[in-house]
Amino acid sequence: MFLSCVRRKASTVGVNKYLVHGLTCFTSPLLHRSFSSADMSLKVEKRDVDNDKPITRVLFCGPHFPASQNYTREYLEKYPYIQVDDVPLKDVPDHIGNYHLCVVKNMRLDSNVLSRANQMKLIMQFGVGLEGVDIDTATKHGIKVARIPGDATGNAASCAEMAMYLMLGLLRKQNEMQISVKQKKLGEPVGETLLGKTVFIMGFGNIGIELAKRLKPFGVKIIATKRSWVSNLQVPVLKACPIQNGVDDDLVDKKGSHGDIYEFAHKADIVVCCLSLNKETVGIVNKSFISSMKKGALLVNIARGSLLDYEAVLHHLESGHLGGLGIDVAWTEPFDPDDPILKFKNIIITPHVAGVTEHSYRSMAKVVGDVALQLHAGTPLTGIELVN
To answer: Is residue 304 flagged as an active site residue?
Structure first.
């Protein structure tokens, strides 16, 4: 009876049901909250624990990637002076002024929104991408901006594994296999192997390195481009892989710079986009780029949707020049289930889950939680990379 009453009470104030069932609110004087648009009519007020201790408030923007806020809440459930809320995207501008730390996710924080963040100390991503944050404006308002390095949390490894999944799914014709199962056919379709293929990793950062480490045992040739190849780049590898001059020369068979992307695309059987998104890389995979690829080559993107020019991709799928497309990120998100691109059999699309694994999300939730505790205590911030 008591539990039932509390659940009914919790539902009236927008408490995350997961936490109510987990009894988190019973062990803490502070409720962690998940707001719907209707709930936002409730004013978010400053509250104290034991009437004299201030609360550090953490804002997660929007409902997508729910494990980010849920895992962070779980990590912080023993600290009643840290409040974790997730607020609908459209309501963030009206309530961002009540928070000290913001986890941006896929929210765009422009100058208008940032001008209202008068208590904000830190904006961070639950991952690495910060293209939605106006960093210059944040700096002017004295707000620090940070990302969570992917090599330390398992995020890069998770994304690399998704790239492997997409490549293998395209090579073995995943969609056609499902059709064969439904039609009770055996021994078809005829797939291909990774063995002997040339894979072009465009953007050899943390994800690119993790991908190369996983590709090598498959007997592929790896070619990669990077803005600059630093001679003392430290690449963690197995002892069986020798490191020369601080660089693992066995990972990449041929290295190039940004100016080599068309040449490398022409040589590759599979192109994997691992670039960060910025003014220089928006739409970099355009008609000219795809035309330079081998006929029948595969294109995989686990970075940002806007790296690919939509019309160019659609055109080359229709012409048959592009042999297959595997994407975890799209031009518009959430992806339109009625998009014409989905009519092709040689397409695999996943809902932006490359980095969403138990390992990486628990690790990143710990980073966010630790940073919130450090902000509260006024101690140096650790586990993040400040960009301003």
So the answer is: yes
